[in-house]
């Protein structure tokens, strides 16, 4: 209104607001109706056939003190001998003075689907009097796998399928003390949860009563919340409402109480993995001492692909950004 220039007036008639035309099924992409068979649903079959031919990789790490049943639990989880070989009968297994990482790779096939499974054990973790910085070899190993994948990814001529040795899940075994988490447990999960998916479990849960187990779980959940430790499944990555509802039910039962067993027994006409006691047989997966859901999502129950996606899109992406920023600095 304060301009001194004459106001320019358009000779065109004022624009009349167009009437809103409701979208019909024919005009809406979401409600478009087909007049014949196109074959879109065949894409799923094509993806399935291609995946079955190529197979997929899954890498898991188990961390905990000696004698907590790490190897037995992995054998129970995948129902096969996939953990490292135990010492021979009559020979005492020497505890290493430092944390040494041992990896064993197997190819598991089920209904035509092949999975290359790599189990990394950490003997010597937490077994010494002075456990200061005992997590450093583990952090170094995880970052080395990220670095190996990054080097393959930034090549000018890349492979069609980059070998994936990154750790997709780290199962941390908590001793069944029935008390609070130790400073070693808290410090390890605080450091490792920033670079890998950490799944805490209570080892040898059959040594606790139902009341002791429930109280121990509650104390662990309070410790994790007090120290702001985010374990898998993380709340920040829940996007779909259905996934959030499922993950909320899983988070209520964290840490999982596990009972490992590598021997088969006959129960009601079926052969199951379990531990035989004078009171009966404790099944490794269906037991009141290890209530569902056990960490079955580590073997493909529902979250195996989600573990791989979070590893690639979150943890590996953070490492990649940090490394590229370091290389671009003058």
UniProtKB/TrEMBL annotation:
Residue ranges of the region described as Disordered: 1-23
Compositionally skewed regions (Basic and acidic residues) per UniProt: 1-11
GO-annotated molecular function: GTP binding
Entry keyword annotation includes Nucleotide-binding: yes
Gene Ontology biological process terms in this record: cell division
Keyword Lipid metabolism listed: no
Protein's cellular compartments: Cytoplasm, Cytoskeleton
Primary subcellular site in the record, as a coarse category: cytoplasm
Keywords for this protein: Cell cycle, Cell division, Cytoplasm, Cytoskeleton, GTP-binding, Nucleotide-binding
One Gene Ontology CC term in the entry: cytoskeleton
Segments forming a coiled coil: none
Highest taxon above the source species: Eukaryota
Residue span, Septin-type G domain: 54-326
UniProt xrefs under Pfam families: Septin
Entry's family note: Belongs to the TRAFAC class TrmE-Era-EngA-EngB-Septin-like GTPase superfamily. Septin GTPase family.
UniProt cross-references to PANTHER family, sorted A to Z: SEPTIN
UniProt name for this protein: SEP12 protein
Gene: Sept12
